[in-house]
Design a protein that fits this description.
With about 170 residues, the chain is mainly β. The radius of gyration is 19 Å and the shape is elongated. This is Phage protein D.
Length: about 170
């Protein structure tokens, strides 16, 4: 396991109606938050510990506005508090808050695509998609990939990519 920024399994450019045959992209605010806080107890020091995150520490590829930004503009701030974990230090509480915030944020925009068969299109690959629109043309981190072959359609790769950013244009 490693942060997404440390995973370098290659980069591919996919153009709609070129190598990318079909794409469905959804930006979902339902799981987005503007901040995450955590709390715990340091048994050695005998004191409460806490952490808070309100910006991306490890957002992954892409550019634009984050889900937290869109949420704040479109609706209202939404806070999440995590209190069911055993956190023994302030550094641990901060790391858990950042990880929880990042995990939600990276799932803001989801791309489900079908591309020409390509063995390099696999989990951990960054795909730069173009030909959709200014909002959706972006870089996505591949989190699922299936390589399929049949007599009718030939070799194709179905994949799911995630991005923490939605283009502004």
């Amino acid at each position: 396991m490693a942060p997404r920024g440390d995973v370098r399994r290659g980069e591919l450019n996919l153009d709609l109606h070129g190598q990318l045959a079909r794409a469905r992209v959804v930006a979902d605010l339902a799981q987005q938050v503007t901040s995450v806080s955590t709390a715990g107890w340091d048994p050695v020091g005998g004191s409460a510990v806490s952490g808070e995150a309100s910006s991306l520490a490890h957002g992954g590829p892409g550019s634009g506005s984050s889900g937290a930004d869109w949420l704040g503009r479109a609706l209202a701030p939404r806070h999440e508090h995590i209190a069911n974990l055993a956190l023994a230090s302030a550094a641990e509480a901060q790391a858990v808050a950042e990880a929880a915030f990042d995990q939600r944020a990276r799932r803001f925009v989801r791309l489900e695509g079908v591309a020409e068969g390509n063995a390099l299109l696999r989990v951990g690959t960054t795909v730069s998609v173009s030909g959709l629109s200014g909002r959706w043309d972006n870089s996505y981190y591949v989190v699922e990939a299936r390589h399929l072959y049949d007599v009718r359609a030939g070799y194709r790769t179905e994949f799911v990519g995630e991005c923490a950013w939605l283009g502004d244009g």
